[in-house]
Model the fold of this input.
Amino acid sequence: MCRTLSFIPGLLFAVLILMTSCKKDESPPDISFMTNTGYITSNTTLTTGSGFTVGITASKHSEDCEDLTRLTVTRDNGATTAWDSLFTGSSVSRVFNFTAKPITGSEKFTFTVTDGNGNTAEVSFTVNTVSQAPSISFITDAGYTSSDATVVIGTDFTAGITASKNTNTNENLVRLLVTRDDGVTEVLDSTFSSGTVTRTFVFTAKNIVTTESFSFTIYDNNDKYASVSFTITTYDPYQMTETHTGTIYNALGANPAGWDLVSNNSLAYTSSNDDIKDMMNQTTVVTDNNNWVSGWEALNNTLYVETSASIYNNATTLNVPDAYSSGTPVSAITNAGIGKYYVAKLRGGNDYAVIKITDVYVTTVDLPYDDNNDYIEFEYKK
Done:
């Protein structure tokens, strides 16, 4: 007869107990901040660049079969990983030392623990950073320069600043530094100890056309500082800034041989109104050789004096008449070349132009004679 297998029910019960005890537990691990004195445990406000300490402790769930396997810390609202470690253990404790951002703003710190089942738990806080530097600003009263400006060369202008200590640090102001020439020239370096400071300055703009930066920097007792600045661009009200270009061609050719320096137009050699012919090429002889006359003649009362590159480059309504008066005026220029300069007194009046020869082109066509396409190119200021 068959024997009854009485042990089988007991074996099945044992297997069920084992399976139940090892069933995957989805409960997350536990994590919390350490509450030691001085540790950050919740949202807080700190000065920029300051250090702070955080501690965390984590453990696996009491009924969990899996140990902890990973701890990560992110900042910058998750954009930056500050810590990422792999390990195996039933618990973990870590202390972190961080430095707040050097700029004002806020960022979230998140601490995440993971167990062997992939379960996670996290804690987080937000750090709001405020400036620890003093403050400085320009005085904006009428008549004060407080931003980039344009002034006449050699004239005075006023600027003022007001500064105060940072209420977060309560460090007194101790130094004011003022520079110009983009930091090259020191205007003021003053030391003191005060919670606030106000200063007014009268500067003289440079006596040349240029651009320079003025900077005002305040320091506190903790060597923190703040700065404001503006740029001054100088201009010469007498500067001749109207610029034109022109070309006069060989008078024997088909292209315009003359120029009107007042209306800034080209003129044909055969045009009837001589009163506006400030420049007219005088090539009039046709020969078997090159007949080009590199120059011009005024058919009105315009007169010319040769001058220098310096006068052209820095032409003003003051130095140009002086340059004209220092020379011998002529009505015709016969040897104009690249890099030569001339002052023109226009039509017997008190208006002037300064001319720079930029190109002279001479044709080299074979006999019987050239094609008369020679020309002079120039630019001029008025």
